[in-house]
C-alpha cells in the first residue's frame, strides 16, 4: 500500500512517501480501513516537530512546521506520550472497511466509517457515550 511515513521528529524532510508498505492484518476485534480521505491537522504537525515535548515553549511553533524543533528521540511526541518511528500519521480519516479481525461480523466489510484513533479510550466502558460527531451525506 502507499502512505506517507514519518521517520522521526523534525521538519518536512522527515516525511517520506512510500509505495511498499505492507498491508496490515486486523487483530481480533479490529477492522482494516481503506482510507479514502485523511485530514492534516495541528496534532499531525505538532507530533512531527516534537512540539508536545515539555521542554518546548508554547511560542516555539513559528517556522518549526517546516524545519522542526531539534528534538531527536524521547520527545514525548504527542499528547499521549512518546511515539515510535516510522509511523503513518493521521488523527482522523474516512474510508471503507475492507477486512475484519476475529470477533467482527464480516457484514461490516464495505461499510463507510470515520476513524479518530487518538481521541477516545476504548478501554473505558463509557467511551462511545462520550463521542459525538456531526455529519451529512
Produce the secondary structure layout.
Blueprint: E1 3-6, E2 15-18, E3 31-38, H1 42-49, H2 64-67, E4 87-88, E5 93-100, E6 112-115
Antiparallel strand pairs: 1-2, 1-4, 3-5, 5-6
User: Any idea what the CATH architecture is?
Assistant: Alpha-Beta Complex
Domain tally: 1
Order of helices and strands: EEEHHEEE
Strand order of the largest sheet: 2-1-4
Q: Helix fraction?
A: under 10%
Residue fraction in strands: 15-25%
CATH class: Alpha Beta
Structural write-up:
By secondary structure, this protein is mainly beta. It has a single domain, classed as Medium-chain alcohol dehydrogenases, catalytic domain (Quinone Oxidoreductase, Chain A, domain 1, Alpha-Beta Complex). It has two helices and six strands, in the order βββααβββ. The strands form two sheets. It has a three-stranded antiparallel beta sheet, with no helix packed on it. β1 (3-6) and β2 (15-18) form a beta hairpin. The chain is globular, with a radius of gyration of 17 Å.
Short recap of the structure:
This protein has 137 residues and is mainly β.
Identify the notable features of this structure and list them briefly:
137 residues; 2 helices; 22% strand; mainly beta; Quinone Oxidoreductase, Chain A, domain 1; single chain; 9% helix; three-stranded antiparallel sheet
